[in-house]
Amino acid sequence: MTGRVTFKGNPVPMGNVYIEPDASQGNKGPQCRSSIIKGVFTSRPEFGSVSGPVTVDVEGSEQPSDKEFPVPLFPRYTFKTEIPKGKATLDIVVPEDAGKPKR
Known about the structure:
The protein is about 0% helix and about 45% strand. The protein has no helices and 8 strands. Strands 1, 2, 3, 4, 5, 6, 7 and 8 form an 8-stranded mixed sheet that branches. Strand 1 and strand 2 (about 10) form a beta hairpin. It is globular and about 45 Å long.
């Protein structure tokens, strides 16, 4: 699994993508975690995500400069999608309102 992650039209500098089978849709298997580096994530083939219905969680941060820890760009963004069988690409566009507090 590979893909790009953008927020407000820009690549997400760093973070993580978690892909988990959607058990509510009867899908099973291991969770996959991939690091985002300069807007791109790639899972290792032996740790790739399952196909079928999945839940995707995205965490994105600014690249730290003089700070000890990265600054989050948005709260964890979660959505559901379908992953096709075989080598898959998943481009993720985090909506701009993901960074706004919910009321």
